[in-house]
Amino acid sequence: MYAECKGINEECGVFGIWNHQKAAELTYYGLHSMQHRGQEGAGIVVSDGRDLRSHKGLGLINDVFGEVKFDKLPGRNAIGHVRYTTAGGRTIENVQPLLFRTQTGGSMALAQNGNILNSRLLRAKLENKGSILQTSSDTELLAHLIRRGGQTANKKSIAAALNQIVGAYTFVILTEDKMYAAVDPAGIRPLSVGKLGDAYVVASETCAFDQIGAVFEREALPGELIIISDEGIEITRFAPRGRRSMCGMEYVYLSRPDSDVNRVNVHASRKNAGKELAREAPAEADMVIGVPDSSISAAIGYAEESGLPYEMGILKNRYIGRTFIQPSQELREQGVKMKLAPVRSIVDGKKIIMIDDSIVRGTTSKRIVKMLKKAGAKEVHVRIASPPITHPCYYGIDMSTRKDLIAANYTVDEIADVIGADSIAYLSESGLEKAIVKDKTIHQGICMACMTGNYPVTAEETEQIFINS
Question: Which CATH class is domain 3-242?
């Protein structure tokens, strides 16, 4: 199922700003606030109304832009991107935004968060019709679809191109005179719209708005195409709005706790998940600790609900990146060694409830439990603030294949043995939904495909789009 999607799996961040004299600089700050979404490449494209200029590179955004003078990127309009790639896709050609120039005008830049499920089919179709693709990024496919027949990027050509794509995505597109933003019909990947004075801003997370002083205006809704120009903002639709299935992992792990995703605060949802977990899976212990950083909110909620003290039992080295989105197992394991350390005087001789947001492969959890017991912990009871991850994600998160997912291959008791825990328990699917979905008039549902195997976008849709395009 979805065999064509395994080559390019991304979890990235996009940002765009229209009509601000410091567009490039503010884009830098917006991307900096979303560095957690991708650490392998970053780029900015700026428009002065006549020309598009680009700067991008491999590495963290400070590495890419550390020596850049922003007056060398003039213009009032800009888009930017921070990128994570799987092994094999880490080349400068794939770093976004991708910029496409024409001799007759109509240049455009594109940035994407998510994954195109029918990318392999579309690539073959485009190549058969004479297109020459320069990258392995599926983002480039949209540019070729827009430009088919010599069309320029406009509302009609972009909508027609988006209707040939199946997947979970947000796109931000910049031309000389407009900025476009689009969200997939199921609304799996997040995108918000804000304002900064007379400037419009779009971003994968609202923490980017806080960083630059922008004010949240609205969520970009499923199937919407938003067009921003000097005339203002136009909100149209390229596809019928489906039932929203916002990615549950945005709340569990991916987003910053100070972000609001679909009008739900991430910290609050994680804390609620911890409380639900305490009700569902209590344990006799002396304290509750959380695995920094994304599990801290859930650990606080668990401690409050259980009446146990919350302690800082694990210390994080702030200068090490996220192990979950490292591109190889070797780098992930080395990252864990450097990243986390037990606080020996706190855990020694104690029975501990260790809260983590999720377990994917199990190697990180095994190493942390081993560290805690080596530091003197008497018992370590692991509690996971999400349901077991049993299926791959095809929507833009690197969750490998089922054979690499520990919960797909072992029972709960077996997982406890594998990672060396005295016990383990997961939050139920209903518990996670209860923690996140408070107002069903706003938040219709969440995607838990990696936990349930119920994919909101199916292989049948992929095939049908290809047949009809």
Answer: alpha beta
